[in-house]
């Protein structure tokens, strides 16, 4: 079976700084993979490399059995940023944002067809924001804005979702809504990579996890990866890095 | 906005009751006034459309840079007898390229890179003017000479302006996504670099157009003020794209007309009008904001209520990964 995401020997440098060192990662269709590490451990770099935003020094990235740019052109990959990464004063409505999930399916003028609007309405209903479609994105709570970004990935009909800290700064209601939608996606055969430094959500969502600190420190079933010893090791490395 | 304009017109007309109507219509009988009006309106509308995105992306300083950097291009074009638009475009686009290159390949931050490059290029233009024969009038380039535009200039402005307006209107959705979320645009396979280049190219074109109307120094006002004004009046970009050009066009009409009546610099007056319109919009926004906070219902969350929590670190990646300081640890280790 073709992996949804296959990363082999990935090494990324920023100037003199080694951000990722020979990372291997494979995510199968219908699998949710947790990506655990402290800040600065290379989680975001891994995502950026996976979507072709940073050029690796070495290693390869394969998305859904092909090169990354082919998967991107057909909209099969979605990147779900943290809501706070985006300008909340930006003058667009919730529906406007979710519609951008389908821009690659529209003509060059990005004029939405009836089907696009229907899919967007469906996506918003799935994340429980149907009645807020017309609201400016800044007039939502952090958790609601996170759900808007998830709805955009749903509207995109992506097969691989990369989620950057989807539960950071999110209220309990939104957390439950996001988790439920993500579980449904996995059941439908979509693949997820969920980066987090908050481990409480992980076992419920991701069967498998990877512990990252520039290199892969541990990988396997989530319960076996998130052990006190492994976490102590990550902490230890972090302290060593800081001194 | 048109109501304000109309009120202003009526007020001025009322002061001279005998010749009120004449005062309104008289300026437009002259060819030079018609040309001035056409050039100023076209330039205002192009710059106003673009300004909506410039203020959202945070590229206002880039508008400043491009408008100044065109100076040597204009002087050289005069010298060799080429259309001034060609020289202006080459130097405007060239300055943008150099700014991007300096920023990407050194530790100099963007605002410093912009400052260094555009002042240097502008200064080079000043030097060029000083060594050229006297037919190049520096003050015309710096502050515009809209009352003296030729028919050829008008054609140039109208054609370039129409092309820029068409490109901005047709590309509005892609440009808006570019301004809002470049990463998502890239991930769904949109040509992000090309959209950015298009935007900078259109910035150079609109400076070239605005140059005729208000000159190098005041062009930057037309590239910032209408967008900032519109952003105060509405929180939908699609409405901003109507409001900004409408306000700017109204300011152009009032400014050019009043400059004739009062016998003052038209470029200056047009930009002053834009500034006044911004002032009015600011007051309207404040009053509206106070009213909606009193009624309370659909207000945006108060600043801080959904603010980034302490554990959120800047997520600009290279910086984050470079950070070697004490990091936030992994939280809530089960069974730990």
Automatic annotation (TrEMBL), chain A:
* Keyword entries, A-Z: ATP-binding, Nucleotide-binding, Transport
Residues annotated as domain ABC transporter: 5-239
Q: Which domain of life is it from?
A: Bacteria
InterPro entries in UniProt: AAA+_ATPase (IPR003593), ABC_transporter-like_ATP-bd (IPR003439), ABC_transporter-like_CS (IPR017871), Metal_Ion_Import_ABC (IPR050153), P-loop_NTPase (IPR027417)
Any one Gene Ontology MF annotation carried by this entry is: ATP binding
Q: Transit peptide: is it a keyword of this entry? A: no
This protein's name:
ABC transporter
The organism named in the record is Actinotalea fermentans
Automatic annotation (TrEMBL), chain B:
From the record, give the transmembrane residue ranges.
Answer: 36-62, 74-102, 114-134, 154-171, 240-258, 264-285
- Domain of life the protein comes from: Bacteria
Q: How does it sit in the membrane?
A: Multi-pass membrane protein
Its keywords, alphabetically, are: Membrane, Transmembrane, Transmembrane helix, Transport
The record, for SUPFAM superfamilies, names: ABC transporter involved in vitamin B12 uptake, BtuC
| Residue ranges with Low complexity bias | 294-308
Q: Among its keywords, does the record have RNA-binding? A: no
Q: Which Pfam families match?
A: ABC-3 (PF00950)
Which cell locations does it reside in? Cell membrane; Membrane
The alphabetized list of GO BP terms reads:
cellular response to iron ion; response to zinc ion; transmembrane transport
Q: Which InterPro entries match?
A: ABC_BtuC-like (IPR037294), ABC_TroCD (IPR001626)
Biased composition regions of type Basic and acidic residues, renumbered to the chain: 309-324
Spell out the GO cellular component terms annotated for this protein, sorted alphabetically and separated by semicolons.
ATP-binding cassette (ABC) transporter complex
Q: State the residue spans of region: Disordered.
A: 292-336
- What family does the entry list? Belongs to the ABC-3 integral membrane protein family.
Q: In its UniProt entry, what is this protein called?
A: Membrane protein
Give the source species: Actinotalea fermentans
**Lineage, please?**
Bacteria, Bacillati, Actinomycetota, Actinomycetes, Micrococcales
